[in-house]
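Request: Could I get any protein with tokenized structure?
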Amino acid sequence: MAKLILTHDVPNLGSAGDVVVVKDGYARNYLVPRRLAERWTAGAQKQIDAAVALHRKKAIESIEDARAVRDQLEAAKYTVAKRASATGNLYGALSSADVAAAVEATTGVKLDRRKVVIENAIKNTGSVVVFANLHPEVSARLNVNVVAE
């Protein structure tokens, strides 16, 4: 078993700064090569603790910023043009990258595609609702209109 400090949020494992114990293969083949975690040492623990304290201070300040961005994003309507058949079925599906690009084009807010949550695959034209996680406590509800090119 390997003791690691997470440097990024890892689903079903923990968030950045957490100390976790995982199997050696998971650490050696997945977490460490992708720089999602680093080996635990006392020095690394001190560095991570300092970084986490700074991050928490900024997070408290940024929750107000996230709420302001949420209000801006929810006020706008977004349109995404995708190739579609005559019956309105898309060739492929609406992706989070498509939504992030539409948000940036419409509002100028640069939104990371990994923050966009699409619950079910969207394979038809029409209006849909997707969510954007701006902060652990703040998410925006985006109204997206999918049209045929």
Q: What stands out?
A: The mean pLDDT is 89.
